[in-house]
Amino acid sequence: MPILTQVADAIATITLDRPEKLNALDPDHLHQLRAAIRSADSDPAVRVLVLTSSGERAFSAGADIGGTKVTEGVAEAYAYGLEQAAQAGLYIRLLDLSDLRRRKPMIAAVKGFCLGGGLEIALQADLVVAAENAQFGLPEVATGSLPGAGGVNALLRALPRHLAVHLLFTAERLSAQQALSHGLVSAVHDLASFDQQVQALALRIAGQGPLAVQMVKMLIDQSDGLAPGQWMQMAELAWGHLRDTEDRVEGRQAFAERRPPVFNGR
């Protein structure tokens, strides 16, 4: 099974497990990945998702070009639903995870190559952390193609404009340290401690009020780009949604009593 899922300590760890292919994903594997994310996000026992990979060489080298086939033209496939479009060759739709409407935070834990569709997937996580050997890029122009799953706009949002444009036009890559210095990732760790550092970050997020984290994620996803009056109103509504929850009562009481809170997601 190229997509593995393990749930422990309120963390769902989803692993891309095709090291012999640098964790490149064909349509069948992308369907498995989407199903794993959907299942973890809807699992009440899960508070945080971690998307990682087996081996140290690659997070994902993108789409498995050799594992894809085109049976119809794009014009015909464009009007199809997700499954039929992917079967007809418009498999890039499977890389777009926005339709999953994920409500829980997801960390992309990147070791090695994170290229093409692999980077397009990672950029849809809420946080990206990197091992010291990570490399990031959208090199599609080198093969006469382009990032077809929103990678152009995602990279423009994640990096300074001229740096993003430079990478997109030249097919060059960023090292882990370069990615950190430009804000593409939030942290870089050595390979020996990488998995432990990612686990510690996930545990820290999982230990916060889960309803509060989900509401903050909603604000991050939906209020960006709104006028100040609109995002202030959205924040007020989110705050009101949380005000009388058991978790907020517990959090305030625990603070007053100088003890760790025990959140139950209610």
From TrEMBL:
Source organism's superkingdom? Bacteria
UniProt key word Lyase: yes
Q: Single Gene Ontology BP term?
A: fatty acid beta-oxidation
Q: Which UniProt keywords apply?
A: Lipid metabolism, Lyase, Plasmid
The EC number of this protein is: 4.2.1.-
InterPro entries, sorted: ClpP/crotonase-like_dom_sf, Enoyl-CoA_hydra/iso, Enoyl-CoA_hydra_C
Instruction: Specify one Pfam family.
Output: ECH_1
Q: Which GO terms describe its molecular function?
A: lyase activity
Which family does the record claim for this protein? Belongs to the enoyl-CoA hydratase/isomerase family.
Name this polypeptide is given: E-phenylitaconyl-CoA hydratase
Its source organism is: Salipiger profundus
